[in-house]
Write a structure and sequence with these properties.
Elements (H helix, E strand, L loop, with lengths): L18 E7 L2 E10 L5 H13 L2 E12 L1 H11 L3 E5 L3 H10 L6 E3 L2 H5 L3
Length: 121
């Protein structure tokens, strides 16, 4: 895919969805998440992450705009991690705490910002 992709924003509530821009950054594919990530809102983000994992060795979740994440989100992240090198960039305090308390930060690499997450190692 050559340029940024944005989630479909047609419809009244679409702008509140969890999926923002997607784009290549070096060897990585970046998927932007925003808002609340829970059972009700996760399907579009889960689909985007799974699709990216099928095509890219490194997938970065840009989590700067995430205000809430629950165990459903954690489950999605761990499933995607089994498929690719999943990296979390700039998680909110709440998401960072969820990753830390569950030990998921030992499985998924967490980076302070998008630039650090997209560096290939």
């Amino acid at each position: 895919m050559s340029g940024p992709i944005e989630a479909d924003t047609a419809g009244a509530g679409a702008s509140r969805g969890p999926l923002g821009y997607q784009h290549a950054s070096g060897a990585a594919w970046v998927v932007e998440a925003r808002g609340e990530l829970d059972l009700e809102t996760l399907p579009p983000l889960e689909a985007a992450l799974s699709q990216a994992a099928a095509s890219h060795h490194i997938v970065v979740l840009d989590a700067r705009g995430v205000s809430f994440a629950d165990s459903t989100c954690l489950s999605v992240l761990l499933r995607v991690r089994q498929l690719t090198d999943l990296r979390i960039a700039a998680p909110s305090r709440q998401l960072g705490r969820l990753l830390e308390v569950t030990g998921a930060d030992q499985v998924v690499t967490v980076h302070p910002d998008l630039a650090a997450a997209t560096l290939q190692t």
